[in-house]
Structure formats: structure tokens, C-alpha cells
Amino acid sequence: MSSTASGGSSATGAERSLGRGAVVGAVAGAVSYVLGYLVVYVTQSGRVEEGLSGINFFADLFGGDTISVWRGVGWVFYNAHFVDVNVPSLIGAARSVNFVAQSDAGLTFLYAVPPLLLVVAGVGIARAAGAATPVDGAQSGALAVVGYLPLAVIGAFLFRYAVGDGGSVAPTLVTAALLAGLVYPVVFGAVGGAAAGATAE
């Protein structure tokens, strides 16, 4: 009886830990996404506004909708996850653009923003879940995906700018979901969680 009770108690404890990790993962993942966007906004909004000024001048001149700075910053934010932005062309097919990669202004540091924030999130999730080994920590840290993935998908739609007859400038949806929303939080959250588990006392 005691063995069964002990096993049941252990299972319940593991379930509680996993549930707590999922809740913390949802919060930490969402916070990482929002903070990442804010870092890009604070550091790049001026440059983005300047880059959009010419386009917005003509859009306003011909009665079109101007491109908001917050939306342009969103494109750069997704580019920092190696997610291209699809840009319609007046002639031929749409082209894929990564403004970070094509910039000569030394913006490559932006590639480090999402991973760093997600590693920190992974540490926090693993600590909250009480992970005591690198494996447990990695499993807990990967739960950052619970909060990061939904926002990555929502953002891909939110940062969409309609152009002409059904065309739009927007992050590539599939890559935004699979790479930015899934791979990034799982991998880097797990790295942070594993580090937390390895250093747990």
C-alpha cells in the first residue's frame, strides 16, 4: 500500500510540476516575445521610420494607407528570427527580404536578441518547475513555446500590410510559425532550462 501511495504521490507531484512549468512557460514565452519586439522597436524605430518615409510619402500622395512604424519594426523583428518578409512586386512574383541581412548599418546584433531572451526564459521556467537535472530543465525550458508560438503566429498576421489587389507585405507565415514560433522557443528555452537544471542545488 505504501509503495502504491508513494508512486501515486510521485506521479501527482510530477504532474503538478509539469502543470506549473506550462503556466510559467506560457507567461515567460509571451514576455520573451513582447520584450524582443520592444528591444527592436527601441533600437530600430527611428531607422525604420526613415526607411519608410519615401514609401509613405507616395502612399499619402495617392491616397493610400501609410505603413506604420510599429508594423515595419515587426518585419525587422521577424527578420531577427531569420524569417523573411514577402514583398509583392509590380512585375513578376513576390520577393523575400531580410532587412537585417541586407542592411549595412551593423544590425546583425539583432539576431542575438530572441535567443538571449528565450535562454533567460528557459532558466526561469526550469527554476519555477524545480528542475534538478539538465534533462528535466531542458524539458521545462522548452515550454516557453506555449507562450511564444501563439504570438509568433498572431504577429505574422498583425504585421501584415495590404498592397494592391490582394497582395501584402508580411512575414512568411509558415516560417514564422515553424521557425520563430516553434524552433526558437523549444531550442533556446531548452538550453536555458538545461543550464538551470545543471546548476540546481
Automatic annotation (TrEMBL):
Span of the signal peptide: none
Keyword terms, alphabetized: Membrane, Transmembrane, Transmembrane helix
Record bears the keyword Transmembrane helix: yes
Transmembrane helix in keyword set: yes
Lineage top rank: taxon: Archaea
Record-linked InterPro entries: DUF7978
One Pfam family in the UniProt entry: DUF7978
Record-annotated DUF7978 domain positions: 9-198
Chain ranges passing through the membrane: 21-42, 109-129, 141-163, 169-196
Protein name as catalogued: Transporter
